[in-house]
Amino acid sequence: MNERFSGLTKLPKQPAARLLSNANAELETELAAPASASVEVVLEELEAKGALIDMLRLLSVALPARERVWWSCLAARDTLAAGGKLPPPLAAAEAWVYKPTEENRAVAHHSLQHAGMKDDTKHCAMAVQWHDGTLGPGDLAQHPAPPGGSEVSAFAMNIVAIGKSGKTLEVAAVLLIDRALDIARGGSGQGKPAPMAKTEPAMAQTTKEGA
Predict the structure, then answer these.
(1) Could you give the count of Cα atoms lying within 13 Å of 77 in the half-sphere of its Cβ?
(2) What SS3 class is residue 208?
(3) Could you list the pLDDT tens digit for every one of the 211 residues in the chain?
(4) pTM for the complete prediction?
(5) Which of 1, 11, 5 has the alpha carbon at shortest distance from 177?
(6) Are 72 and 154 in contact (CB under 8 A)?
């Protein structure tokens, strides 16, 4: 196993194919790995084939909910000017990561209702709203969310970050992949102690389909 994909303790032990199916997600790359292959094995094959976008897509379905949302929040921060005020959807999503209560989920839902059309950080709040497979807080929890809605929202935020990075696809995608891998090991994705460490749980191909 490639050392890059070792120690991903936050990832579920289910086969990658099952996680993708549960999230209604597909990879564009044809795999040689069997359907029973782990996420780590599939990531290693995708890396060997230069399938960077598919690596991001797989990580978006493999990361647990809080880690997934945190990953999207870091991508959202990449798109913002330094020192500026956080857009409400991003602030609400980060608040939920630190304290994943229904009250904070409701704040994230509310932020979506009032977000501007050009506010890409809506993807972060949407990843919170649908994190458990339901439509949201309160009465919305009685209804199912679109399959894989939270996962695709986190993926979309990372794709937006690539487009706004000013870097080549390869450079930008590798940064986002490494960030997700660090979060999957229990890190923060920032080279610092994980912000969720005290409250469990802790954190080249071109794209044609977008998010």
Answers:
(1) 14
(2) coil
(3) 688 999 999 999 999 999 999 999 999 999 999 999 999 999 999 999 999 999 999 999 999 999 999 999 999 999 999 888 999 999 999 999 999 999 999 999 999 999 998 999 999 999 999 999 999 999 999 999 999 999 999 999 999 999 999 999 999 999 999 999 999 999 999 864 333 333 333 444 544 433 3
(4) 0.90
(5) 5
(6) yes
